[in-house]
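User: I'm preparing a small set of examples for a lab meeting where we compare how different chains pack in three dimensions. I only have the primary sequence for this one, and I'd like the structure in token form so I can line it up with the others. Please keep the answer compact; I'll paste it straight into my notes.
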Amino acid sequence: MRRCGTTSSPRVADIVAEAGLSNDAFYRHFASKEALVAAIIEDGAARLGSYLAHQMAKESTPERRVRRWVEGVMSQAADDEIATTTRAVLWNGGRISDSLGANRPSQTAPLATLLREPFAELGSAHPDADAALAAHGAVGVLSDFLWQRSRPTRADIDHIVEFCLAAVSAR
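Assistant: Understood. Below is the structure token output for the 171-residue chain.
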């Protein structure tokens, strides 16, 4: 996917050749290329979630945990190699049809889960819903940076953090 970027989608034949597998081996693990893309998205979200949880655990206040979360999400656009890979995966993920139904991967749900506790500590009356909104917003902003091939500035990150904190503190 990274090699194809955002101009074409790799064929199953390309994937199995690169991996040194047969078509039979591929289809033993994945029902379709879309199922592989879904698995890659889920794995990427889990890896990012693990990284964010590790970063957040370094902080003692909910405000600082939210800041670490935002910094970690935005870091996906701060490094060219990571940004190129993330952009290619998002592009391929956007091409997943409705055939996966309920198995369509969520890029934001695992990330939102991490914000639930700090949002609750900050007084959110609806920490799950607020965390989901913040995750969708942050991933949307990240997507904008990725497609514009730009990096978030300290001011951008500060603004996202302030927005999240204001949203849960305003209640």
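A couple of notes for your slides: The CA atoms of residues 38 and 105 lie 6 Å apart. The helical segments are 12-19, 23-29, 33-56, 62-74, 80-93, 109-121, 127-148, 154-169.

User: Perfect, thanks.
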